[in-house]
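[Solved] Which block belongs to which protein?

Original post:
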Amino acid sequence: MPATPISAIREELIATFNRLWNHAGDQLRMLNLDEEELKSFRIESERMLFNFSHWLLKNDLKVPDFSELRLFSKNLKLLGIIDAVHQHTGEPILVDYKTSKKAIVTDDMTRQAAIYALLYKDKFDKIPEAVLIHFLVTPGDPIPIHIDEHLLDYGKILIESVREKTISEDKRDYPCTCGGYCERDLK
């Protein structure tokens, strides 16, 4: 069977996006954005989809082994949601998609990568090779944060530091802001 041309894949991706955008009209209006702001967000979203499809097709990547992988660790008492996991490349590679305006890996992203690696290691007893930070607003390749023992130790220190600074154990002091996902995922 012949491969689907890149242009056809992009056209289908953009058509699906536009169909879903139009279907979400009432929800978009509830954001109280003016027409120019909405138009800007739509164009930016289309550009991100174009950049993502270009990267995916350029690298001939397979479908990820996991998407939106929710990992809860009773050992670490943490929950994380990893955007994508590719295991078919040898060592597992985690991917975190970012929609930020600048393609700069921040300290927060490094902390997040360390925690994702710890969660993955706890669940699968395997250390990921890297966490790829994929900035969708730019057409370039993702930026890898390579995982090593130093980064894992850093993640453990972070977790312990937060626990030490957690004063209250009363759930009421930490109101749910996720729409109930925490209750579902932590059971």
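(Second protein starts here: sequence line, then its structure tokens.)
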Amino acid sequence: MGSLFSIAMGVALVGLFVLSVRFRKNIVALVHGIKLPRSILFLLVGIPYIIVEEQVNCGPEWCYRILVPPTLLPLMFFLLFLLIGVKLFRTKTVLKPMLIFSILGIMFELIFGSAHVAFQGLITRAPLGFILLSIWVGFSYRFVSFIPLAVLLDN
């Protein structure tokens, strides 16, 4: 039952991402109605996306028991580094920073993430599982960064 629920939550996350892509201009216009600097909006908009993504990929010690995940602050710092990189390199489109953020996210989870030992173990024991999990982790980081980047870059 647990794995079926996890699959359903994953499908829901993909559905939310598709809706975010489809309605990004509406979401961005709504967020831009708030009179704050785009950098602040970028970080604020990231919070609900992080909460949703972390509830889908939650750790067993807090899974569905708390609203605000313990990973919120570290992921907000990760978004802050993304913001600094986008500003530093004067990026104009969402695609490149989102892709780089996803790759860095996969590397972070592989080296430091809460399941890094199991993740690393897949490399030799189940390479296909490692590839699929890497794709999912990269997608999760794309989910977290897409709308904040669209708000920041207005595209």
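Accepted answer:
You had them paired correctly. Confirming on the second one: The chain has a mean pLDDT of 92.
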